[in-house]
Amino acid sequence: MGKNSRAEARAAGAPSPRPRALLSYRHAFHAGSHADVLKHVVWVQLLLRLTRKEKPLFIVDTHAGAGAYPLRHGYAAELAEYATGIARLWSRRGLPAPIDDYLREVGRANPDGTLATYPGSPQLAWQLAREQDRLRFFERHTSDARALALRFRGAGHRVIVTAGDGFAGLKALLPPPSRRGLVLVDPSYELKTDFAAVRDALADALARFATGTYAVWYPLLQRADAGRLPDRLQRLAPASWFDVRLQVKAPSPGGLGLHGSGMFVVNPPWRLAADLRAAMPALLEALRQDGDARYSLESRER
Question: Which of 118, 182, 242, 258 has the smallest number of Cβ neighbours within 10 A?
């Protein structure tokens, strides 16, 4: 199987034949896709709202990737998924505040006004973090971990990059000294075990640090384990959570393919769910690929 075929299989959500395939995943193939847009609209809002208080915030990304991705060449150019993601929003104006906030942060990574680089979750966190905040990034793919470490080489003690398993690494970090924390859990879901690992990681994190804010990205796939994950997360969550989903197209007839994604957030900041609910129609209008596109947002408040 050639490189393009492997990339297309990953984009289609095909299961990996061997556990080692997890390390062949490269987020760069999908940088700026509709799934990234939803994830990072929510991520930016979490960062903006949780950094309003003066007290330090401890930020953890368990599957951080390389940090930022060139869109015009390399892996991202092979599938060009950004064309149906960030590129559809880039030149739009007058969008709801959560989308405008996200576009502003993407713009900071493209200061000349040309969409050439897509900032991943670590870069967005760095852009919005303050001097008193601390950031911990995990990445298991060795090449991406090296790129991530190089990107933050001059950040000093504020950023620590670890080449390793973010699920395991998270256990040693909670609760943070400041008792204020934001965790993004965003694995590749190439392995069936990732779905159970996400559920177990959240259960363990809540046992160690019940008041932290946790954001879990998940794919919409025609697979039973994918469909069960949001319900399992809801059963774990305390009194406050929301689950936002964006389906951009109909599921494929063959049963393969990512037709959307979701973000499940535990202990979200006040009014975030309501503000996202108001913004989702505009996001749907921009990113829909066919008549079956839709969104939903469920929430439970304190």
Answer: 242
